[in-house]
UniProtKB/TrEMBL annotation:
SMART domains: S_TKc (SM00220). One of its GO terms (molecular function) is ATP binding. Keywords: ATP-binding, Kinase, Nucleotide-binding, Serine/threonine-protein kinase, Transferase. It comes from the Eukaryota. This is non-specific serine/threonine protein kinase. Residues 42-376 form the Protein kinase domain. The lineage of its organism: Eukaryota, Fungi, Dikarya, Basidiomycota, Agaricomycotina. It is an enzyme of class 2 (transferase). It catalyses: L-seryl-[protein] + ATP = O-phospho-L-seryl-[protein] + ADP + H(+); L-threonyl-[protein] + ATP = O-phospho-L-threonyl-[protein] + ADP + H(+). One of its GO terms (biological process) is regulation of mRNA processing. It comes from Mycena pura. Its EC number is 2.7.11.1.
Amino acid sequence: MIDPFVFIVVEDMEEGTDYGPGGLFPVKLGDVLSPEGTVPRYRISAKLGHGSYSTVWLARDLVARRTVAVKIVRASESATSREAAILKRLRGPASDPPAVIQLLDSFTLTSVNGIHHTLVTEPVIPLECLLKLPGIQVNTRSLVRQALKGLAFIHERGIAHGGESPVISNFLSSQPLPDIYPSNIGVVIPDLDSFSEVDIWDKSGPPTIVPLVTYDPAYDVASFPPYLTHALDLGRLLASYVPDFTAREPRVRILDLGCAYFAEETPSPPCHTPLPFTAPEVAFPMMAHGKRDAPWDRRADIWAMGCTICQIAGGGIIFGDFSGANLLDAMAALCGGAPADWTTYFASISDKPRVYTPEASDALWAATVAHLQRWG
């Protein structure tokens, strides 16, 4: 397909072709969004991220006088989105919110591209972005404890988590991927309300933009924004202008529940999680039989959380170097055994016998932990 737009989009931006019928909502800096029939409410201050399924923006709530995040879902995905309903079930008291991103408002927006589901939440940044900041100090045990409490809260409310992997983002985005992994764990941004819109614009400087100009005069100019813009790096902004930001104890939020589903629903949605975090009951049919619709439930969240804890604590991805049958072999070796259908599969692809024992598993775990601690 020939790109209908004149200028080449730079890295960290969505494509111009993401806009159009069924596509993303065209929005630009300074726009004011609000539910139909209400007073002007959310003024767009900066872009926070994007993915295949949404864009996310930093905005000023002109009514509540606070800074929020606004996530606008692609029109083609909005009709089936459960995210608002999921987040409403996960609401907690404002005085003591759970370690799950909190929904503040939800409504729909209409454009020539369709009807767009819109979520307003507290602003957060992914934990992995926070950990890259120079001088950051974190209590790993506290992070893990908070994340586990957040996952337990999600499960207690009868929900299996469904995450979204950032394609290009420093905040939230929307490439649906079930399970918990590092990009789906965020932290609350302190002191953001102390910055006015002018402060944010002044301290962050003008964003890089790429004008959207099409070769085709018949292309509906109302279907895309006048330009694309880079995302604002909120973490670095706060680290530069809030003196003790990097020394504070992060408050964890589990986020990106676009593919979450209610536990009472059947069947479960297809799994598209990154292989290093995929539970064995999903990985085996995928690797051995090319089956991507294997059922999964909250137990898959627990496996993914375990892999995530290894990454947070050790700095490395425990199954990051494996794929295909090698991934299955690594899982069986670390677990100290494999089900009968795994054994049958291994025998069908290799004459090399595979023997898994608890003793070998213990030794492998010790070596793996040492490796993660050394190279993390």
